[in-house]
Specification:
The protein is mainly α. It has one domain. The protein is 64% helix and 3% strand. The chain is built from nine helices and two strands, in the order ααββααααααα. A hairpin with a 2-residue loop joins strand 1 and strand 2.
Length: 159
């Protein structure tokens, strides 16, 4: 059992994007869909394919820090501010599993580092293409749409 889509969006994704000054309806929808695809909204947080809601590999995490955040000290400081003070120094990749806001910030910055044009928030096929490019290059856009229908749509119809 994962996290309810509305709770994840309201209490993790939206506040994180606002904190990073990167909020948009598209960013929120993309990250919600990515979490649905990658971990069924938190049902499987630590796998050999990666850590946390977004299943980010240790290698991609390190590359993001070395090739993107290292060149933007202000942004790096904001992201580092989301991490646990001592745990991050001992095991930075574990933060992707145990710290939802940190993982969300890293996931968004992986998207941002690709410098892709963002579609409308309700353009699920386009969001699926971005998810494939950023998170699962071997997957199909159809996988994103299936995860959206399975994990997110039932909740949004009730709300």
């Amino acid at each position: 059992m994962g996290i309810a889509a509305c709770d994840l969006s309201q209490h993790v994704i939206r506040p994180t994007l606002l904190y990073l000054e990167r909020h948009s309806a598209t960013a929120e929808a993309l990250l919600l869909g990515a979490a649905a695809c990658q971990s069924a909204l938190g049902s499987a947080l630590d796998t050999p394919q990666g850590h946390g809601l977004y299943r980010i590999s240790e290698q991609r995490h390190q590359i993001l820090w070395d090739q993107h955040l290292a060149f933007d000290p202000e942004l790096a400081s904001r992201v580092r501010g989301l991490a646990s003070q001592h745990a991050f120094l001992e095991a930075p990749h574990v933060e992707l599993t145990v710290n939802l806001r940190y993982a969300t910030a890293i996931a968004w910055l992986l998207v941002e580092s690709e410098k892709l044009e963002m579609p409308a928030a309700d353009d699920l096929p386009a969001l699926g293409r971005i998810w494939c490019k950023v998170f699962q290059p071997q997957a199909r856009q159809h996988d994103f749409l299936d995860a959206w229908q399975r994990c997110i749509e039932p909740v949004s119809q009730v709300a």
